[in-house]
Write a structure and sequence with these properties.
binds flavin mononucleotide, 41% helix, Rossmann fold, 7 strands, alpha/beta, Flavodoxin family protein
């Protein structure tokens, strides 16, 4: 079974909820590892070891001011240690984000995850659930997007967004299994 790590930051619980559904999808076809970036942007040594051992890494951050949170960026900058040796080369990668506005510039965050993955020599997995108005209602194929209004709690995230997150996690796990066995 492939190993898939889902690493994410969440300031107020919304992205954490999305991450739970990505993880649920991963678990259908791979061993899932949850790695949380804390409020100071730190990841434990044990969690770095989990990332190093993973066949696939899924990046997650809320979109803040049109980009990943500074806590995620601190983690990304710290990953430069792996970049020097191309330690994550050929790992599979994907990403997810949530924001409050319908667009909210979420694509900027996904594009950053893609660039980070390319710097590491990773292989990016697209999001393939078609937009039927409920599933993938935001029409995102470069990664997973979710959205809920600025005053809404995590429990109000539309189920279609969460189901799409689950399907994306499953796709990454199945692809990891296909490539890595
Ligand atoms: C500092 C900050 C910046 C934000 N910037 C954006 C933004 O650029 N676009 C947007 O649509 N929502 C923005 N939001 C709203 C969050 O993306 C949204 O509330 C998200 O669900 C928060 O996820 P979290 O609870 O996991 O932190 C911002 C929120 C904060 C706190």
């Amino acid at each position: 079974m492939a190993n898939v790590a889902v690493i994410y930051h969440s300031g107020y619980g919304h992205n954490q909820r999305v991450a739970q559904f990505v993880l649920e999808g991963v678990k259908t076809a791979a061993t899932a590892h949850e790695v949380v970036i804390d409020a100071e942007g730190n990841v434990s040594d044990a969690d770095w070891a989990v990332l190093d051992a993973a066949d696939a890494i899924v990046f997650g951050s809320p979109t803040y001011m049109g980009m990943a949170s500074w806590q995620f960026k601190k983690f990304a900058d710290a990953s430069s240690k792996r970049w020097f040796t191309q330690g994550w080369k050929d790992k599979i990668a994907g990403g997810f984000t949530i924001s409050a506005s319908p667009s909210g510039d979420k694509f900027s965050t996904l594009r950053y995850f893609f660039t980070l993955a390319m710097q590491h020599g990773m292989i990016w997995v697209s999001q393939t659930v078609p937009n039927d108005g409920t599933l993938n209602r935001l029409g995102s194929y470069g990664g997973l997007m979710a959205q809920v209004g600025p005053t809404s709690p995590p429990a109000d995230i539309p189920q279609g967004d969460l189901d799409t997150a689950r399907a994306y996690g499953q796709r990454i796990a199945e692809f990891a299994h296909k490539v890595k066995g």
